[in-house]
Amino acid sequence: MSTETQKVDAVRSLRYLIATELLLARHAIRRARRHEFRASTGLSENPQAALKVAAGYKRDAAGSRSAVARLRADLARVGGAA
After folding, report:
1. In contact, 39 and 47? CB cutoff 8 Å
2. Distance between CA 67 and CA 42 in Å, rounded?
3. Distance (Å, rounded) from C-alpha 71 to C-alpha 15?
4. pTM of the complete model
5. If DSSP codes are grouped into helix, strand and coil, which group holds residue 82?
6. How far is the C-alpha of 82 from the C-alpha of 79, rounded, in Å?
7. Alpha-carbon span 45 to 38, nearest angstrom
């Protein structure tokens, strides 16, 4: 396998990982907003628990965003456009 082929594979893999992490962050934010809404409107039997769950989803989203930042830095280092 040539060096150019390895580079193309690395760029493809990094882009796939970035897309996956962005999707995970998006869904975590959606779930957090849903639980916050349920807590604020009385749709939840236990609003405090719903807020704790929302906070957990927000932490998950923050972790995904930091992973995206690291992956974008790796992609820039490899030579692919971030």
Report:
1. yes
2. 34
3. 8
4. 0.85
5. coil
6. 9
7. 9
